[in-house]
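To whoever is on call:

I kicked off a structure prediction for a single chain this morning and the downstream step that reads the tokens threw a length-mismatch warning. I double-checked the sequence; it's 276 residues and nothing unusual in it as far as I can see. Pasting both halves so you can look.
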Amino acid sequence: MNLWEIFVAVVLGIVEGLTEFAPISSTGHMIIVDDLLFRSKELFSPPVANTFKVVIQLGSIMAVVVVFKDRFLNLLGWKKNITVDQRLGDRLKLGQIIVGLLPFGVLGLIFEDVIDTYLFSVQTVMIGLMGGAVLMIAADGFRPKRPTTETVDQMSYKQALYMGLFQCFALCPGFSRMGSTLSGGVLLGMSHRAASDFSFMMAVPVMMGASAVSLLKNWEYMTAGALPFFIAGFMSAFLFALVSIRFFLRIIQRVKLVPFAIYRILLAALIWLLYF
């Protein structure tokens, strides 16, 4: 076991865990930190390094399962801690999650090779950061003055589908899956918290599917020596995501999207200065 490799995995896991649930692109931040400091593609092969940046997000996703365990129990029919909306007859349904996943799943499978080959770069992240910032500013600028959907249990199948379409922007590293879906939900009349909750719920099957596809595609490049690297990153991402997800849920209703958009613009400008 190489201690430097473990250190790199832990640091990238921290970056992933702290940024996964903010609309600033966790994948983009990992690519930037890795390219500037570590160059994991030189520690392992490029396919292994790119797969790591996808699979490591499972650690953060497990934090979602822990925090939203009651929600997932409700989706599976094991009701627990019923909300006011659910007592009145409203309830988020498994079908809405599936509808939201379809656009991303179809396009992800079609363009998976293109994404892995051409889009895991700092230049792409810079473009994605700027594009996502514009979308987020537009979402807060043109959203309804009063949300028509206050909680995730009140959302419709149409809103689920459109949020799924907005999620497709995140196929470009740097755009941010969270930023895309949050912006879409807010434009559709959802509160920031309701859009956040649905985005978190969709994240679990999305990242599980993306990780499975990436692992299967690059399985021939995986070695026993890479296993500690993956485990260390996974555990680091999980622990730091547990903290960041609760923090994000507390502040998103207060700060909205514009402060995150400003951060993205400043980060994109810094990348441009450093690289170009």
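Update from on-call: the warning came from a stale cache, not from the record. Cleared it. Sanity check on the structure: Residues 227-255 form the longest helix (29 residues).
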